[in-house]
Amino acid sequence: MKILDRKLRNKRCLVFVDLEGTGYSHEMIEIGAYLTTLDENGYIKKVAKPFKRYVLAHHPIGHFVENMTGINEKLLQKEGKPYPDVLKEFRKYVGKWWEDCLFVTFGNHDLVIFNRSFEESKGLASEIFTKQINRNNLDFSAFLAPYVQDMNGNPLSLANYLKAFEVEFEGKAHDAVNDAYNLLLLYKAVLNRPDILKNEYKKALTHYHHAPQPVAKMIKKLTEGETVSPEQWEVMVGETFE
C-alpha cells in the first residue's frame, strides 16, 4: 500500500506502543509494547512476546486515571520501577532493531508522556533513547485520519477504527499491553482490508469541509453511484456565481 509505504520508510520492524500516564504531570505509569517484524510488503510476519512494565511517577496519578486504568499508588509502589530503568529495559527488549524500527503509537499523547518522563528524570534517563523514539514515531491515528472519519470529519477512537474494519477490540481498554495489541490488530486490518479503507475514504471525501462547493457536490454524486457529465460539471461550477 503506497500511502503506508511512505510512512514505513523501508523499515522492517514496528514496535506498537501504548502508555498510561498521570492525570496532571503526564508522567508514565505503565508501558505496553509488541515488537513485530515485517516482510517486504509491510505485512507482519512475526510478533515477539509483549513488554509490560509499571513505572514510578514523581507526581500523583490522579483519581480519574486511577478509575480509568485501575492503576493506583499501592500497585506502583509494589511493582513499579523508576523511569530510567524501564527505558533501559525497553531498549533491551527492542534489541538489535532499535536503530531501525518505527515506534507506532495511537495519537501524539504517548510522545508527550515519553518526553515528560524524561524531563522528570532530571538527566537520569537516556536522552539518546528518548530522541530516537521521537524521531522514529508513526502516529497511526494521524495516518488514518484523512481516510476514515466520523460524519463531522473527526478521527475515530481506537475501538471505533477497529469496528470500521470489522475487528473486535480485544481485552480491557486503558491497559497498555491490550491497547498496544489492539493497535497491532488495526495495522493488520488496514493492510488486509483495502476495500474498507477505500470505501471509508469515499465517505470521508463527501464531508470534506474545505472542498469547494462544486467539487463537494460532484464527489457526493459520484460516491452515490451517479455519473457526472461535463455538462453537469459546468452547471455545478456556474451555480457558484448565481
Give the topology, please.
Layout lengths: L1 H7 L4 E9 L6 E11 L5 E4 L3 E5 L7 H7 L3 H7 E2 L1 H12 L7 E4 L3 H12 L6 H9 L1 E3 H5 L13 H7 L11 H17 L1 H13 L6 H11 L6 H10 L3
Parallel strand pairs: 1-6, 4-5, 6-7
Antiparallel strand pairs: 1-2, 2-3, 2-4
Structure notes:
- Strands 1, 2, 3, 4, 5, 6 and 7 form a seven-stranded mixed sheet that branches.
- The chain is an alpha/beta fold and 242 residues long.
- It has helices at residues 2-8, 63-69, 73-79, 83-94, 109-120, 127-135, 140-144, 158-164, 176-192, 194-206, 213-223, 230-239, and strands at 13-21, 28-38, 44-47, 51-55, 80-81, 102-105, 137-139.
- The protein is elongated.
The amount of beta strand, in percent, is: 15-25%
Query: SSE string, helix = H, strand = E?
Result: HEEEEHHEHEHHEHHHHHH
Low-confidence stretches are none
Any idea what the shape is? elongated
Percent helix range: 40-55%
Overall pLDDT level: 94
How many helices? The count is 12
Q: Strand pairing plus helix content: what structural class?
A: alpha/beta
Count every beta strand, where a strand is a DSSP E run of 2 or more residues.
Answer: 7
Terminal CA distance:
43 Å
| Largest sheet geometry | 7 strands, mixed
Instruction: From the alpha carbons, calculate the radius of gyration and give it in angstroms.
Output: 21 Å
Provide keyphrases for this structure.
48% helix, 7 strands, alpha/beta, 242 residues, elongated
